[in-house]
Every structure is written in structure tokens, then in C-alpha cells.
Amino acid sequence: xxxxxxxxxxxxxxxxxxxxxxxxxxxxxxxxxxxxxxxxxxxxxxxxxxxxxxxxxxxxxxxxxxxxxxxxxxxxxxxxxxxxxxxxxxxxxxxxxxxxxxxxxxxxxxxxxxxxxxxxxxxxxxxxxxxxxxxxxxxxxxxxxxxxxxxxxxxxxxxxxxxxxxxxxxxxxxxxxxxxxxxxxxxxxxxxxxxxxxxxxxxxxxxxxxxxxxxxxxxxxxxxxxxxxxxxxxxxxxxxxxxxxxxxxxxxxxxxxxxxxxxxxxxxxxxxxxxxxxxxxxxxxxxxxxxxxxxxxxxxxxxxxxxxxxxxxxxxxxxxxxxxxxxxxxxxxxxxxxxxxxxxxxxxxxxxxxxxxxxxxxx
Length: 363
Ligand code: SAM
Ligand code: MD0
Ligand code: SF4
Prior knowledge:
Elements: H1 5-16, H2 23-31, H3 35-53, E1 56-66, H4 92-104, E2 109-114, H5 118-121, H6 124-142, E3 146-149, H7 155-163, E4 168-170, H8 178-184, H9 190-202, E5 206-213, H10 219-232, E6 236-241, H11 258-271, E7 278-280, H12 281-284, H13 289-294, E8 299-303, H14 327-336, E9 340-341, H15 344-358
Parallel strand pairs: 1-2, 1-8, 1-9, 2-3, 3-4, 4-5, 5-6, 7-8
Helix pairs in contact: 1-3, 2-10, 3-11, 4-6, 6-7
Bound molecules: S-adenosylmethionine, 5-amino-D-isoleucine and iron/sulfur cluster.
């Protein structure tokens, strides 16, 4: 049932005061389809972002260092069995060059992402040390915080990565419906993926949790996910619309309308006003940035240096060699939207505060 304007106003008022919202209320926000009501939701999300972050937006450089993967996720272009997909494994020197380029362009963090590449993950200690070596060098050369997105790894590997100086561990559950998870992430274990994030937190790494939207989830499932993110006390949370990929079993399935991701982003901001919430360039490219910022996102991710043969994940090529996934294109968009890049010191201090909060915390 469509929510009334006065009910919506009441819910948004309470969200602005950080009062807890009920399951029905949260689901009703996810169900809004009226244009004016959506705008009211986005306005509230922007107000909360401003309250905790002012006009500051953080920028993440993205280095997809290996597109080899031992997994076969149904939605993913880089799934093991997709012969159509572009495969590469960047050399250390290439990773460093990309990271340095990104650092010079003004990003706040380098995200080192990979498929679950057997060369790194199935070679015991040697593979993990190689990965940890990359983290250490990227950190030393760029002087920037590093996020690592390697997929599911054992606790000993997390330890090694933390020792190498990784600040963040990103690993997206996609959905918190175990049933849907099993359909999407074939032969992977729901609990293992989730638990790895708890272990990472215990080791002092910040964590990013994420969802796929338009992949068969209901709004009740989304509610479950939001609660699971709260339980996990995730430091950064995200949602990305499913983009159908050539050569995969879901190739012919229509993706959701772009509003789905944007609306969920705004609801995330209401429930997690003080967390980092990305607007990824990896879904609708640069043109998709303004509506995501308008929905309360405060990080721009998937900034990729052109001309280096580096790929995106959901959009493997969109806007990359046109240089439109660069800070040079992103910064003017921030300004047009009344926003600005935060300072590096501001980003560091946000991280430090969150890490402090982890010390002695139970989650
Ligand atoms: N391989 C590691 C893993 O799966 O955790 C790390 C990188 S993985 C490629 C990063 C994320 O990209 C996935 O968790 C998923 O949320 C997102 N993704 C992959 N394929 C996508 C698609 N077709 N549409 C939208 N997002 C996608
Ligand atoms: C992004 N393409 O931020 C990246 C990726 C992995 N940590 C992030 C999904 O959109
Ligand atoms: Fe591999 Fe990650 Fe793609 Fe799954 S989402 S197939 S783990 S790269």
C-alpha cells in the first residue's frame, strides 16, 4: 500500500532525529514510487549526510588487479566458466603504476580488488604473501589508506593483510537471504562469507558490506540485509544494481530500473547516517553520479585510470578509456551538486575514529 504524505513526513522526521524505525516503516520507504515522496526521501538523506559529513565527499581509486576467479557466481562477468570475459593478471609494477596515477589525481584511498584468483588464493602462504606485498608497496608508495577486496580468505590471510597495512576489507554478501545467496553464489557458503567479515573486524580492519539490487530480492529481504549490516556494525555499506553480463546464465534477465539502487542508497543513509555510503561509477558511469549523490551517498568509487587496460566489475569498460572515471571529471560534478572533495586528513581522521571504536567492541 502506498504510504500517505503525512505518514512519510512522520517517518522522515523521526529518522532525522535518529529514532529507530520499524520494519513496516522501513519497507514502506523501499516501496515509495511517487515522485514527490521520493524527493522527500532523498532530501532527508542529504540532510543527514550534511549533518555528519558536511559537503565532503571521498574518492576511491579502483584497481582490478586480477580478473581470474575460481568461483562461478551467476551474476558475474568474470565467473570461472565465462569464456567471453576479459582475463588479465596485472604485474606488480602495473598495479603500482595505476595506484600512483590514482594517488596523484587526488583520491583518498586505493581499492585493490580481484577475482578469487587461484594464483593468489590457492598457493598457500606464498600467494597470500604476494598479495600482502602488493598492499605494503601500494601503501608505502602512495601514502594512502588501502582497501582490499580479495573475496573470502582464511583468518590467517586476513591477519597477514592487516599486518601489511590494509585498512579495509571489502566483501559483499549481496543478499542476507541464505536461499537467494545460494542461487547466486553457487557452491559458496553463506555463513563463511559473513563470518569472514566478523573476523576481519576483530583484527582491526574496517569492513565494507554490500548488496546487489534487482536480483530477485524482496523488500523484506532488504530489510533483513539492513538489520544484518547493523548487527555487523559495518563501516561502509553499499548497494549496486545488478547489470546483466554477456556470457553468463543471467545474460537475458532484465536488470532493475536505476531508481532501485538510488532509493535503497537513500534508505541506507537514513539508517546509517554516520557511515560511508558509495556512489559507484561502475553501474551507470559518470552520468549516474548526480542522482546517487542526491540520494545521500558520500563516497565516489570505481575511479579508474584510463589507458592501462584496467577493467570495471559490473561495467567492464563503460567510461574508462573516455577518461570519464577520473577525478578530473568527478570533481566538477561534485561542485555542480554543491559538494566538494574532502581533505585527506579528514578521511584519515574518520578512519582512525572508526578503528578506535573497534578497539574493545564486541562485534
Ligand atoms: N571477487 C571478490 C568478491 O566477489 O568478493 C571481489 C570483487 S567482486 C568482483 C565485487 C562485487 O561486484 C561483487 O561482490 C558484486 O557485488 C559486484 N558485482 C559483480 N557482478 C556484478 C553485476 N553483474 N552487476 C552488479 N554488481 C556486480
Ligand atoms: C566499485 N567496481 O566500487 C568497484 C567494486 C570492490 N571493492 C568495489 C565493485 O564499484
Ligand atoms: Fe569471482 Fe567475485 Fe565474480 Fe564471484 S563476484 S565470480 S567471486 S569475481
